């Protein structure tokens, strides 16, 4: 068994399922937890408190425990999702993409440890000052909204700069990736793209097909999908997605948002968004989430045991 700070939370393997908005519901989170990791619900801005309660119950029924991830910048205008998340007593609460300082004390008062996913050294210092318990170094290889610094440079920088436990996210899709970040000093990994072809994910069937068919060179870091859907993400965070006709037409093009909105079609794989990271090239078929997590953990343990 790989024992780290993360496994002190009751996990058998040091793996979090990424809290992917619109993709990570109770079924996916529950299967990650049942495999020994911790599945995280992705509570996007448009999520409701009732959704959090219902999906947390599903996750617990499947896997016994659940984590919840929230977007901090959206809590600044409406913190009802925070109240709903705290009411579920998750194993871990993730407060990312913004300063978590106003919200960490409320989680700690309920006995809930807090993670914060960061994209720069300055972000880490903000999260550290806010009193979070664990830092997640999310590199630009990650799918969905992320920063621009690569996972390995960012991870090294943060490990040198903090005494807090650090997890790695972005580009980790096999046991080799988990072994690499553990060997570097991380206390675990967050995996997202590796799970996106799993049948437990929320979303259209074409999204899983797109994940399986894409290579690691087929992603683009862009804001065009946020603009098309009027998602008010702060400008500093773009999203990494699989390139398609929509991105080829509009990424880097000076087009009005109204044109993007009229052209975007969530039902069309050529015109809708499938967020995914550069680890998409490691996904070769639709596999249950639990099988993915168990193989990543077993392969990492086997690789690391060569040097034990």
Q: Which structural category fits the helices and strands?
A: alpha/beta
Cα distance spanning the termini? 13 Å
**Helical coverage, percent range:** 25-40%
CATH architecture of the largest domain: Alpha-Beta Barrel
CATH topology of the largest domain: TIM Barrel
- The general outline is globular
Organism: Rhodococcus gannanensis
Keywords: Flavoprotein, FMN, Oxidoreductase
EC number: 1.13.12.-
InterPro entries: Aldolase_TIM, NMO
Written description of the protein model:
- The chain is of the alpha/beta class and 308 residues long.
- The protein folds into 2 domains: 6-201 and 286-305, Aldolase class I (TIM Barrel, Alpha-Beta Barrel), CATH 3.20.20; 205-263, no CATH class.
- Helices cover 38% and strands 15% of the residues.
- It is built from 13 helices and 11 strands.
- The chain has helices at residues 26-34, 49-63, 72-75, 80-87, 104-109, 121-130, 151-161, 175-184, 205-213, 224-229, 245-250, 257-263, 289-305; strands at residues 15-17, 38-43, 67-71, 93-96, 114-118, 134-138, 144-146, 166-169, 189-191, 219-222, 238-242.
- The strands form 2 sheets. The chain has an 8-stranded parallel beta barrel with strand order 1-2-3-4-5-6-8-9, surrounded by 6 helices.
- Helix 2 runs parallel beside helix 4.
- The model has no long low-confidence stretch (mean pLDDT 96).
- InterPro entries: Aldolase_TIM, NMO.
- Keywords: Flavoprotein, FMN, Oxidoreductase.
């Amino acid at each position: 068994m790989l024992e780290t700070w993360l496994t002190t939370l009751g996990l058998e393997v040091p793996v979090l399922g990424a809290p992917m908005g619109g993709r990570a519901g109770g079924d996916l989170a529950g299967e990650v937890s049942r495999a020994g990791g911790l599945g995280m619900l992705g509570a996007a801005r448009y999520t409701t408190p009732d959704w959090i309660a219902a999906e947390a119950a599903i996750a617990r029924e499947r896997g016994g425990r659940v984590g919840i991830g929230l977007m901090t910048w959206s809590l600044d205008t409406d913190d009802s999702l925070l109240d709903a998340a705290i009411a579920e007593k998750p194993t871990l609460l993730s407060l990312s993409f913004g300063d978590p300082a106003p919200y960490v004390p409320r989680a700690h008062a309920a006995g809930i440890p807090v993670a914060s996913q960061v994209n720069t050294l300055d972000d880490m210092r903000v999260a550290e000052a806010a009193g979070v318990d664990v830092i997640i170094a999310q590199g630009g290889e990650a799918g969905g909204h992320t920063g621009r610094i690569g996972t390995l440079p960012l991870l090294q920088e943060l490990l040198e700069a903090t005494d807090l436990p650090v997890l790695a996210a972005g580009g980790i899709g096999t046991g080799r990736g988990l072994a690499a970040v553990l060997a570097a000093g991380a206390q675990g990994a967050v995996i997202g793209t590796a799970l996106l072809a799993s049948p437990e994910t929320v979303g259209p069937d074409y999204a899983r097909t797109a994940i399986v068919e894409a290579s690691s060179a087929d992603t683009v870091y862009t804001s065009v999908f946020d603009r098309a859907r009027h998602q008010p993400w702060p400008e500093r965070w773009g999203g990494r997605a699989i390139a398609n006709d929509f991105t080829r037409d509009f990424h880097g093009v000076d087009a009005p948002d109204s044109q993007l909105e009229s052209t975007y079609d969530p039902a069309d794989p050529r015109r809708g968004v499938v967020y995914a990271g550069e680890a998409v090239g490691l996904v070769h078929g639709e596999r249950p989430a639990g099988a993915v997590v168990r193989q990543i953990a077993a392969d990492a343990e086997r690789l690391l045991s060569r040097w034990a």
